[in-house]
Design a protein that fits this description.
With 540 residues, this protein is an alpha/beta fold. The protein has three domains: 210 residues, Spore Coat Polysaccharide Biosynthesis Protein SpsA, Chain A, CATH 3.90.550; 131 residues, Rossmann fold (3-Layer(aba) Sandwich); 160 residues, Rossmann fold (3-Layer(aba) Sandwich). It has 16 helices and 24 strands. The protein has a seven-stranded mixed β-sheet with strand order 5-4-1-6-10-7-11, with helices on both faces. The protein has a seven-stranded parallel β-sheet with strand order 14-13-12-15-16-17-18, sandwiched between helices.
């Protein structure tokens, strides 16, 4: 079966000058239709028909046939029918063959994927139809106009999903049997449509269309490798989800171990795509199939072998909180929680690279009250050292003698507070699921927290805080110190109850100390880190 692909590319363009050969994402616009045709192995011959010598010279760079179109076929009001007919007739003479199918491929549809074209062509051959037209479906409440009056094109106002689809031509391709290619028509008797995905349907006619297409072509496939469970907490998961929201213009997919249910459930809640894996070998197998552009590894210390293997399957590798040997081979290492992690050019450390959750980017610092009445307690995603229980003991004692003070405990989902006999009491509130933690932080006069990412969130709001580290690695996170407005008591399991109690009493009774802590915290610019990290990830 002989199949001809005709790419009509007129030189004149009123909306975007020289549109068909302008550079889009490092290639002339016309490249994308030529490449689709060349990658579709069912197509026998490809020809670009144009009135422009410049377009023809560029088309020749891709080793395809070209035809110089007569000026009569290059006018503004000339339809494509005579243009396609002219190119088909001339190609049949040049190639000395008769074509069975003629495909019109518009150069103004750069988002069309080769696979979509292949599937449409295969379906056309099997269908017995004379003509296939590419379309996209739309479901909207539409209106028509008669003179100065508007009228609904629907019978009943219903949700968009309940409307009958309206199919709109995309211009991406037009497939027809050769016998119906004439100077005044390309329509056969039996016509059908082929629906292309919405993200492949843009037909460039304006500057806005150009921007949309270029951004789509720049879209990368980004894989987040991350876990969340009791021993390491949920901070890694929260950070990756936050970054994913800021990289929403790209294709995002998470890879997480299925045995770590806490992290897996949080990823499911985020509605991003995800892949459950069993082990590292399973992850590498997945990477090979997904063809990632960027891999973001947020699993603590990496080895040289591990990063080297990832590099075989992705152009760019970014790691977080990485103190392992793999940092030498990663494209970038972001250690926001560590102030000094070497002088390597690819290592970015310190508070400048902290990634605050989106809810904190719009919140403003609180005003410090003279009397500390509302105490907030939150110890991360899993509280592996059970610091919550120690502060609950303090809360019971304090509220027994001071009716003005209230404690609010934000309990991690995976923390068994019932087993630890932690429950609501007079002036003590236990909350086990929170969607917007900043709402509770804003009401706090003082907070108890561990030494992870939460300290940056508290600092962004200027909440005076007592810090108890969950483990020795957390103690390497040096931001939570007095210089930055925190009273850090060290490793939580080593701190006596009396020390915690005395520190608490000092802060609630001394307004000036809490005000000074607040002032030290809000000196830091923590809201711009997410943009810096995004630029590093994308290599911009």
């Amino acid at each position: 079966m002989n199949i001809l692909a005709v790419i009509p590319a007129r030189g004149g363009s009123k909306g975007i000058p020289k549109k068909n050969i302008r550079i889009m994402n490092n290639n002339p616009l016309i490249f994308y239709s030529i490449n689709n045709a060349k990658m579709c192995n069912k197509i026998t011959d490809i020809v670009v028909t144009s009135d422009s010598d410049e377009i023809i010279e560029i088309a020749k760079l891709y080793n395809i046939d070209t035809i110089k179109r007569d000026s009569a076929l290059a006018k503004d009001l000339t339809t494509l029918d005579p243009v396609i007919h002219d190119a088909t007739v001339k190609m049949e003479k040049i190639k000395n063959k008769k074509y069975d199918i003629v495909i019109t491929l518009q150069p103004t549809s750069p988002l069309l994927k080769t696979q979509t074209l292949k599937e449409a062509l295969s379906e056309f051959v099997k269908s017995g139809c004379d003509t296939y037209i590419s379309v996209t479906s739309e479901r909207h409440l539409s209106w028509g106009k008669n003179g100065n009056n508007f009228y609904p094109l629907y019978k009943k106002r219903v949700n968009r999903q309940q409307l009958q689809p309206i199919f709109t031509e995309t211009g991406a391709f037009f497939i027809t049997k050769r016998e119906f290619v004439k100077s005044n028509s390309r329509m056969g008797k039996k016509i059908s449509v082929y629906e292309v995905p919405q993200d492949e349907s843009v037909d460039i006619d304006s500057a806005n269309d150009w921007i949309i297409c270029e951004n789509q072509l720049k879209k990368k496939t980004i894989v987040f490798r991350v876990d969340g469970y009791k021993e390491i907490g949920m901070g890694h998961i929260y950070r990756c989800i936050t970054l994913a929201h800021h990289l929403i213009a790209h294709d995002i997919i998470f890879a997480t171990k299925k045995q770590h249910s806490e992290g897996l459930e949080k990823i499911k809640e985020s509605k991003f795509q995800f892949k459950q894996i069993n082990d590292t070998r399973d992850f590498f197998k997945f990477l090979k199939s997904v063809k990632a552009d960027i891999v973001i590894n947020d699993c603590l210390d990496s080895t040289a072998e591990y990063i080297t293997e990832i590099k075989k399957h992705a152009e760019r590798v970014i790691t977080f909180e990485d103190l392992g040997t793999g940092i030498e081979y990663a494209d970038a290492v972001i250690n926001a929680l560590y102030e000094n992690t070497g002088k390597r050019d690819n290592v970015f450390s310190g508070e400048k690279y902290i990634c605050l959750k989106e809810e904190f980017l719009t919140e403003k610092p609180v005003k410090i009250s003279e009397k500390a009445k509302n105490i907030l307690v939150l110890f991360g995603g899993t509280d592996p050292s059970n610091l919550t229980k120690e502060i609950y003991k303090l809360a019971l004692e304090v509220t027994k003698f001071n009716k003005d003070i209230k404690f609010t405990f934000l309990i991690p989902l995976s923390y068994d507070y019932k087993k630890n006999n932690i429950k609501d009491a007079q002036n003590i509130k236990i909350i086990s699921h929170v969607n917007r933690v900043s709402s509770y932080m804003k009401e706090a006069d003082l907070a108890f927290t561990s030494q992870g990412r939460t300290v940056f969130e508290l600092a962004s709001l200027g909440i005076p805080s007592i810090v108890l580290a969950q483990n020795k690695r957390e103690q390497l996170h040096t931001f939570a110190n007095m210089q930055n407005g925190f009273l850090n008591l060290g490793l939580g399991t080593d701190v006596s109850y009396e020390t915690i109690k005395n520190t608490f009493n000092l802060l609630i009774s001394t307004y000036q100390i809490r005000q000074n802590m607040h002032n030290l915290m809000i000196k830091h610019d923590l809201k711009t880190g997410i943009q810096r990290v995004k630029n590093i990830i994308l290599g911009e």
